[in-house]
Design a protein that fits this description.
The complex is a heterodimer of chains A (about 110) and B (about 110). Chain A is about 0% helix and about 60% strand. Chain A contains no helices and 11 strands. In chain A, the strands form 2 sheets. In chain A, strands 2, 4, 5, 6, 9, 10 and 11 form a 7-stranded mixed beta sheet that branches. A 4-stranded antiparallel beta sheet of chain A has the order 1-3-8-7, with no helix packed on it. The model of chain A has no long low-confidence stretch (mean pLDDT about 95). Chain B is mainly β and about 110 residues long. The chains are: A mainly beta (about 110), B mainly beta (about 110). The interface of A and B includes residues 41, 45, 100 and 101 of A.
Chain lengths: ~110, ~110
């Protein structure tokens, strides 16, 4: 178990407000990822990081930004939340065998 | 680009029935292939993987064989249990450190 903690686990917010989701890992893995999960779409990659201050966009990055100031923390920010960003968000880390380990998820509802 | 297509669900089975979930992929290189499982209310966890053609991954009675000629990685289990009720995701990873996921297949096993 890579020891991944996501916070908050549940959040309800209003359209136009900023939201930050936090992912914390204890395994010192270099690669970290943010995915969103929606019915019929599986998991779609939002952003990923390959080291401190090194990040890149995934397939659904519009409206999201990320930051990684320490190896253990990877933050996902919605600058101005929209209803289309209502989803379950998963953080993951990748080990040396190319296996992803996921956090328990953060359920975000944007009203 | 890379993509994964898996059979749509939901799939409902009786205990001890045989389970097959089809997965086919498109990739430009020689990807590694994975099956992940998501139990209710949890994040995804690795079920099995295969890293090269003809490899067979196996775990918890599940098996999948990497078939390069048919670009497939079908998941099978000979006798399912109620505890196998979950969402199953096929995924691939090419040499770009990102995983592409299928849409997921919901499996429900009835006692």
């Amino acid at each position: 178990d890579a020891g991944i903690t996501q916070s908050p686990r549940h959040k309800v917010t209003e359209t136009g407000t900023p939201v930050t989701l936090r992912c914390h890992q204890t395994e010192n893995h270099r690669y970290m990822y943010w995915y969103r999960q929606d019915p019929g779409h599986g998991l779609r990659l939002i952003h990923y990081s390959y080291g401190v201050k090194d990040t890149d966009k995934g397939e659904v990055s519009d409206g999201y930004s990320v930051s990684r100031s320490k190896t253990e923390d990877f933050l996902l920010t919605l600058e101005s939340a929209t209803s289309s960003q209502t989803s379950v968000y998963f953080c993951a880390t990748r080990d040396g065998a190319n296996v992803l380990t996921f956090g328990a998820g953060s359920r975000l509802t944007v009203l | 680009g890379n993509s994964v297509t898996q059979m749509e669900g939901p799939v409902t089975l009786s205990e001890e029935a045989f389970l097959t979930i089809n997965c086919t992929y498109t990739a430009t290189g020689y990807p590694s292939l994975f099956w992940y499982v998501q139990y209710p209310g949890e994040g995804l966890q690795l079920l099995l993987k295969a890293t090269k053609a003809d490899d067979k991954g196996s775990n918890k009675g599940f098996e999948a064989t990497y078939r390069k000629e048919t670009t497939s990685f079908h998941l099978e289990k000979g006798s399912v249990q109620v505890s196998d009720s979950a969402v199953y995701f096929c995924a691939l990873s090419d040499n770009d450190y990102k995983l592409s996921f299928g849409a997921g297949t919901t499996v429900t096993v009835r006692a």
